[in-house]
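[step 3/7] fold_predict: job queued, chain A
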Amino acid sequence: MISRRTGPDAYRAAHPGATAEDLLEAVTSDALFRMPSLHLAEGNAAAGGTSYVFELTYPAPAMGGVLGACHGLDIPLSFGTLDTPMGRHFLGDPPGPEAVEVSCELQQAWIRFVSTGDPGWPAYEPTRQLTRMFDSRSESVRYPSSPPATSGRGTLPPPTTSAKDSGRG
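[step 4/7] structure written:
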């Protein structure tokens, strides 16, 4: 296991120029989403199962892209409901051609998976760690895709406090 002292250094090195808030978001995303997904895939492989890992890295274009590849964006993209209130909230009105393309690709992957058990990219193997990254240019790459995700293994995100909780507010 990598020490807690090493983890922050790895995040800072992988995100040069990131603000403290950006780094907290990266650590929290790894702790809540990336690492549990990886652990599930590894456990399933160890038990003889087959897993297909993917990550949606396409940034929500609405609101000037401030939300990034946020939680919930996969819902309108997966179901092709780009013109619903939720879809417009994330993707703009009307959604751009990139959003439509990512949506079509994600829908086709789900249809293939439900129909055949294979979404169209290699199954996760602990030695190769391949995952599908859905973006304007989707690709299958080694997962985790950045050093911080590996450095955060077994490490919980730091506790957060508001200004009020810390006595500053």
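[step 5/7] annotate
Residues 1-5, 149-169 have pLDDT under 50 and may be disordered.
Helices lie at 6-14, 20-46, 74-79, 85-91, 97-116, 147-151.
exit 0
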